[in-house]
Amino acid sequence: MFHENESVKDIKIAYIGGGSRGWAWTLMNDLKKANDISGKVYLYDIDFEAAMNNQIIGNKIDGKNWNYYAVKAIGEALSGADFVIISIMPGSFDEMEFDVHAPEKYGVWQSVGDTAGPGGFMRALRTVPMMRSIASNIRKYCPTATVINYTNPMAVCIGALYREFPEIRAYGCCHEVFGTQKLLSHALLEMEGIEATRQEMSVNVVGVNHFTWFTSAKYKDIDLFDVYTRFIDKFYETGYNREGLGNWMNNSFRNNARVRMDLFKRFGFVAAAGDRHLAEFMDNADYLRDPEYVKQWMFGLTPVSWRKNNLKERLARSQRLLSGEEEYALRETGEEGAQQIRALVGLGTMVTNINLPNVGQLSNLPMGTIVETNAVFRNDGFKPVCAGAVPDSIYPLISRAARENDKMLDAAFSLDLAYARQCFFELNMLKTLTEAEKHALFEEMCQGTKHYLKDYR
Amino acid sequence: MFHENESVKDIKIAYIGGGSRGWAWTLMNDLKKANDISGKVYLYDIDFEAAMNNQIIGNKIDGKNWNYYAVKAIGEALSGADFVIISIMPGSFDEMEFDVHAPEKYGVWQSVGDTAGPGGFMRALRTVPMMRSIASNIRKYCPTATVINYTNPMAVCIGALYREFPEIRAYGCCHEVFGTQKLLSHALLEMEGIEATRQEMSVNVVGVNHFTWFTSAKYKDIDLFDVYTRFIDKFYETGYNREGLGNWMNNSFRNNARVRMDLFKRFGFVAAAGDRHLAEFMDNADYLRDPEYVKQWMFGLTPVSWRKNNLKERLARSQRLLSGEEEYALRETGEEGAQQIRALVGLGTMVTNINLPNVGQLSNLPMGTIVETNAVFRNDGFKPVCAGAVPDSIYPLISRAARENDKMLDAAFSLDLAYARQCFFELNMLKTLTEAEKHALFEEMCQGTKHYLKDYR
Amino acid sequence: MFHENESVKDIKIAYIGGGSRGWAWTLMNDLKKANDISGKVYLYDIDFEAAMNNQIIGNKIDGKNWNYYAVKAIGEALSGADFVIISIMPGSFDEMEFDVHAPEKYGVWQSVGDTAGPGGFMRALRTVPMMRSIASNIRKYCPTATVINYTNPMAVCIGALYREFPEIRAYGCCHEVFGTQKLLSHALLEMEGIEATRQEMSVNVVGVNHFTWFTSAKYKDIDLFDVYTRFIDKFYETGYNREGLGNWMNNSFRNNARVRMDLFKRFGFVAAAGDRHLAEFMDNADYLRDPEYVKQWMFGLTPVSWRKNNLKERLARSQRLLSGEEEYALRETGEEGAQQIRALVGLGTMVTNINLPNVGQLSNLPMGTIVETNAVFRNDGFKPVCAGAVPDSIYPLISRAARENDKMLDAAFSLDLAYARQCFFELNMLKTLTEAEKHALFEEMCQGTKHYLKDYR
Amino acid sequence: MFHENESVKDIKIAYIGGGSRGWAWTLMNDLKKANDISGKVYLYDIDFEAAMNNQIIGNKIDGKNWNYYAVKAIGEALSGADFVIISIMPGSFDEMEFDVHAPEKYGVWQSVGDTAGPGGFMRALRTVPMMRSIASNIRKYCPTATVINYTNPMAVCIGALYREFPEIRAYGCCHEVFGTQKLLSHALLEMEGIEATRQEMSVNVVGVNHFTWFTSAKYKDIDLFDVYTRFIDKFYETGYNREGLGNWMNNSFRNNARVRMDLFKRFGFVAAAGDRHLAEFMDNADYLRDPEYVKQWMFGLTPVSWRKNNLKERLARSQRLLSGEEEYALRETGEEGAQQIRALVGLGTMVTNINLPNVGQLSNLPMGTIVETNAVFRNDGFKPVCAGAVPDSIYPLISRAARENDKMLDAAFSLDLAYARQCFFELNMLKTLTEAEKHALFEEMCQGTKHYLKDYR
Predict the structure, then answer these.
(1) Percent of chain B at pLDDT above 70?
(2) Active site residues of A
C-alpha cells in the first residue's frame, strides 16, 4: 500500500470466510463509503462458489476503489496481505441446532448459545482448530498483517490465534458495546432531551466479549450513570422499547433492556451487551429459568430455526444481488472495521473497544486471558488503554467468564474429548445437572457436531 | 462549566505560579487561539504583584473569552476549579546557581541541572514540600479537578502530588518529546523530501521525563527508524543544524542532536529529549566529561547566568506588555496544554505523551514509579496507553533513572537531611567523587539552598 | 551479633512500647525458651516507669542469655539494633471507649473496634503519626534493622511504616490465623480422631489482617476442606466449644466459630480470624445487627470496660512480678516472634503468615496495599510466597477491606480532618447512617480522641 | 499413598525415561537413602529393555521400601501416579553431534549445546513434541500428579508441559545452582577458614535455567558477596581449582570458575551455573571465540564424542550392575528430588530453586515465561517465592535468554520448519553469520535431526 495525497491506495485485504452473506456485504458497504482508501479484497471461503458470488456482488457495490477477487487457496488470499479479516461460520446451523437446543431438555435455556455455556463450548471445539489453521497460515504468508476477527466465540477465537502464533497482530471486533452506547443515548434523549450519537457516549469498557461493562460513561460533561439511574427508575418495570424498532416478541434479536437495567441495579455498573448475551453469563435462575420466565425479562430466545430461515432469506437476497434484480443500497452499518483500517493505515486516530490478550489493561485479571477494553488505533498499530481494575461487585462474574473462556481454549487445544468433557462439566450453566445428565448431554452434543471433531481423540 | 453549541464555557482554571513570565503567557496565547473554550483563569503566585501584572497582560491578550484574575489566597484560586495548572519556580536562580555550578569544582558538569544529578536532587528538596502543600490544598478545595504540572523536576513533582494525595487527578506535561518528533520530521525531509508536522510522527514513548525514548516511530506507512538510520549516517559527524535556527554555540538551548544520534547508534532506539537533558542521565564520561569535551558533542551547558539574563529580558518584556509599549503577538507555541483541556472538556480525542504513576503502561518498571508514555485524553479523563516493556538495551538506564527519581522523592518526603545526604551520595553522577567530596558538596549545596530547607531536620 | 557454635549471640533488640504488660512478657518468655539466641533488649516506652518495671521483670525471667535495659530516648534503643519490635498502645482505653461505643447509639455494634469500621478508623488516625515517627527514627538510627510490628490496626501500621520510609524492612505479626489453624486441628480430632498441632495444618493464607482466609488447607495428605465441611455439618447449629476453654458468654474473646462456619458455607473458603474480627468486615446486618442478634452467632462484643478491668489485673500482676510475690512461669505462648528471629539470624528456615506490602504475592490485589500471606524466613530475610489470586467469591470483600485500609492510611497521612471526614463517611460499616448522623458521630469520636489529633488541621 | 507413623507409604512414582543409566540410578540411590518414604516406581522407556534392566538394578538397590516395575505402556506408568519424573534423552548422541558440532564450521563454538544457541534450538525442536505427548498423557492419566522434569532444554520443556496442559503441576530441577553454592562455600573456606555445606549458602536465585544468578548470598550473618569479591581478587587470574577434583583440561565438565568470576566483576552479581553453560548466554566473542580462546577461560568444550564414550561406560556399568559383577554403592548424589518428594508428601518444609512459569516471582520479566527462582515445598505443593526484580545490569542478558527460550517454544509448537527457521536466524549466537550461512546451517542441522522432525511441515 502507499499514501497518495490524503488517501491510501493499494491496500490488500484477505477475507477469510469471504463467501459470507452478512459481514462480507457490510464490509463492502463500508469500504465503499470510506472514500480515502482503496485496494483489493481477496475472498477465500471453503465454499468457493459463495466467494465467487461475493466477488460479483463486491465488484457491483464498488469495483472502482476496491476490487474483489475470489481465490481458491488460502495462501493466495493471504500472501502479502496488509489486513486479514476473519468472519467464518464454524460448522452449519445443523450443528448449532445441537449447541442451542440439546441442553433445553435438561432445563438449560440459551438465548444465543454461541459464546458461553454448552453451546459456546461446543462451538469453541469446532472453531479453535479452524483458527489454529488460519493462524498458522498467517504465520506463513503474512506474519505482520493486521488480523481482525469477527467470529464467535470471540474471546476463544482471539485466544486461539495468539496461542497458535504468539506474535500475531490480531484483535477482535464486536458491536455489542455499541448497542448499549445507543441505549445510553436514548436515555439521554428520554431524560434530558438531548440528541447525541452513540460515539459521543464516552465509555470505559471492561470485561470479556459479550459480557462487557462500562465503569464510567460520559456525554460531554454529563455523567451518564446519573441519567441512566433515572432512566431505569422510569423504565425498569415496562422495559424500554424504542419507537419504530419493532417489538422484542417479534424479533429474536430485540430486547427491552430489562436485563441490563436489572444488572445496573444489582451491581452498580452498566452491563454493555445485548440482554440475550448478558443473561448467559449469569446463573440460569437469574434470567433464563425457562421460556415463560424469559418473557418477563422481555428478551427473546433465538431459536436456530430462525437462523435457518434468515439464512434462506440472505441466500435469496444474494441471488437477487447477483442477478441484478436487487441493487445493493449503501447504508450506515454501524460497524467500525473500515474506520479502524483507515486509522491503522494512517488516516486519523481512533479509540474504540476491542478484544485482546490482557497485558495489564485490566489490572486484576490474569495476564494473557482475552479481555475487551478500549484501545488506540493509529498508523503505528493498536494498543490497549489502561482501563483500571474490574470493580469489586462484578469481579467474580467477569473472572468466572474469563476462566470459562480459558477452559474452552484449553479443551479445544488438547484435541482430547476426555479432557474436554471434564471442562464441559464445570460450566456454570450446567451446575444444576446431575453427573449422568452432563454425560448424556456431552455425548449428544458431540454426536451433533461430530463432523468437526475428527481431529479429537 | 457547561457545553453550549460546539463550545464549552465557564471553565475555571487555577494557575499556581500565575506570575510566571513564560509559561503563563504561553497558556494565555493558546487559550486565546482555542476559540471553542472560554472561562476564567485565577492567577495565584507568592509574588502577588507578578500575578497582578499577568492579570493585566492576560486580559489584554484576550479579555473576551477568557478573563484573568490575580488572587491573594491559593484557596481562592482553587475553589471550584475545573483545572489546576502548576508552573512554579522552586526558589530563585540564586539557588539554582548552586544546583548547577557547585558540582563543577568536582568535575561534575551539568548541562541543565534541574532534573537529574545533584542539581535535580537539590531542586527536588526545595520543590517537593511546595508540591505537597499544593496537593493538600487541592484535596481541600477541588479534589476532583484535573491538575496539569509543568514544574521540574517533573517526575518527582508528579510523584509528590500523588504521594500526598493518592486520588489526585494529576499529570505532567513536557515538550521535550516534541523536539525529537521535530527532529524526525527534519530527517524525513532531508532523506525523503517529505514535509510533515511533528504531530504526524507517530511515536511510542517510553521512559522517564527528560529521558524518554521512542521504541517505534512511523510517518504514514514509513518506518522512521530506517529514515533516522540513514539520516544519522549522513549527519553523525557534523551534527544536524537546521537552517535559520541558530547555532548551538550561541544558544544555551540549541544542540546539533549528536548525543541523540549517538544514543541511537549505541542502543538502537530513539532517545527523545534534548541532548542537554539526555546527557545528564548517562555516565559523566559519556558526554559531560568537561566543557571542552561537551563541545565535540555540539550542545551547550546552560549557565545560570544565562537564565538570569534571560529573566531580565522577560521582566523587561513584561513591563513593555503592561505599558502597552509592546503588544502581545499570538504565535504557535508548540505547547499542548490548551488542546488537552479541549479534549478533557469533551471537544475531541487526543493522544499524546504525559507523566503519570506507572499502573502497567510500562510493564517491566515498578508500579507507582513516575513514567512518561502516551495517554488518551477524552471527556472521561486521561488514561495511559499500554506501551509495552522497556526494551532490554535501555532498560538499565531507564530503571536507574526511575530509581533515582524515587529516591529524590523519598529523601524530600523524609524532611530529614541526614537521610537525604545518603540518597544524594548514591547519585550516578557523583560516582567518581570521594566520600569527602560528596560531603563537602552536599554541605555547600544545602547551604546554597538553605532558605528552602527550613522544614528539614 | 555473631554466630558461635550453633547459637547466635549479642543480638540487639529495641522494643518500642517496652512498658507493655502483655506482649513484652510474652516476648521475654519466648526469648528465654529459645536457648540458642542471646543478647540485649532495650525497652523504650513513653511511660518510662513501665519500661523500668519491665526491665526488672525481664531480668528476673532471664537475666542470663538476655539482658533488659529501660532507656529514656528512642534513639538509645534503636542505635545499632538488629531487630525492632513495635507493640504500642495508641492512646488509652479512654479513647478506645469512644472508638468502640460511640457508634452504638447509631446501631453500629463493633465486636472489637480496633481494625475496621469507625473504631479502627479513629485508632488509625491516632496511630499513624506514631508509626511515622518510629519509622523516621528507624531511618535515622538503624535503617537496616528488621522491624516486627504487633500494633493494630496492623495493615495501616505496616502501610505507615513503608510510606514514611519505603526501604524499611518491616513486617507485621498477628496470631489470628493460628486460632483458625487450631480450629482445623480440632475439626481433625473431632471428625477423624487425629491429634495434631496447629503448625501441622498447612494453609495458604490470603487476605488482609483480621480478614484472612485459607484457600487450601492440608494435614499430611488429608484435605482439610473436606474435614471442615463435615465438621460444620455437625457443629453449625450449636457452635463449637472446646471443652475446658470456657464459654463464649463469659469471655469477651471466646467464640463458638459460628461466624467462621457460616462464612465457609457462604463463600467456600476458610475464614481465618476470630469471629469477632471477621464480623466487622461483613455488612452490619450479617452478624452485628444488635447485641441480641450477636448472641445467636455465639461470640461476644468486647466492651472497653472489660479491657479496663483486664488492664487493672495486668497492672496488679506487674506489681506482684516486681515484688517477687509472683514468679513468672514460662509457658507456651503460641506466638512466633522469637522463632522468626531465630530464622532471621540464621537458625533454620520458617514459613509463616505475615503482613507486607503487596509485591505480587496476591496477584489480583493492587500493588502496595498491605496484605497477609505466607512468607519464607531465613538468614537472608523474609520474602512473601506467591499465594495466587484471591478467589472470586471473596474478592469483593477482601478488595473492599484493603481499600478501606488504604483510605485510613491516606486520611491519617493527610493530617487533615476535613479529608479524614470524607474517608470516614465512606466506611462500609456506616452505610446505614444518614449524612447528619455520620457528621455527629465523626465529631463525637474526634472529640473523644482529641489529645491525639493535635497535629491535624 | 498414606501416612503411617512418621513415614509415608505406597507412594506411586512414574518414571518417564526409566531406562536411563544416570538420573534413574541417582533417584534409586536417593529413594533408598530417604528411609521414611516408600512405594512403587514404574519405569517407562521407549527402550523397554533398558527399563527392564533398571527394574532389576532398582530392585537390587532397594527392593524393600521401593519396588521397581518396567512397564510397556506410558498409561500403565502414569495411571494413579502421585509423582511423575521426566528424564528423557531427546534423540541420540548422533543427533547431538549435529547440534554441537555443525555450527563450528561457522565459528560458533558451543560448550554444551543443549540449552541455548543452535544446539539448544534443535534439541528443543526434537524435545517439545515429546513433552507435549507426555503432558497430554498426564492430563489423561494423572492430571493432579506432581511432575518433576530433569530433561533439557529445561525452560523450553517446562514451557511445553504448561502450554500443552495449563493446569499441570510441573516444575523443573537442575543442579547447576548447587555447583555455585559449592563454589561460594569454597570461597568461604579459602577466605575465612569456615567450613560449611552448600545448603548453608542462602541465595536468592533469579534468571532462567543455566543462566541463573544470585542477587544476594549469605552464610549465617556473613555477606558472601564480600567474601566472593576477595576470593576473586585472589583467584581471578589463575582460576580456582579445588584440590582433588581433577583438572579442567582433562574433564569436559570441570572448569576453573573464571567465567563466573569474570561475570561477577562485570555485572556485580553471582552468575550461578557452570562456566560451560554461562558462556553460551553471552556473546560468542566474550568467552567462546574459539577453542584456543576458551582455554584462557579454563573450561572445556564438551564434545559429543566424550558423551558417546561416557555412554559406553554407563552401558558397561549397567551390565555389571545387572550381572552382579558390580554392586551399586550408595553415595551422596547432591540431587534433591527425593527430598522434594519428602516435603511434598508432608515430611518437612524445603526451600530450593526450581523452574516454573513466571507468576510474579520475578517482577520485571514477562508473566508466563519460564524462570528459575526459589520455591517453598510443603505437603500443600510448591509455590515460588517473590524474588524481586532482575537487577538492571543483568536484565538485558536474562531478558534476551528468556525471549530466546520463548521463541524456541513457539517454533517447536508451530511444527512449521519455515517459521522455525526464522526464529533460528534470530539467535544471538548466530548473529555473526551471513544469511546464507544461517540457511546452510539450518538445513544441515535439520538434516542431522530429521528422524525427529517428521511431524513438522
Answers:
(1) 98
(2) 175
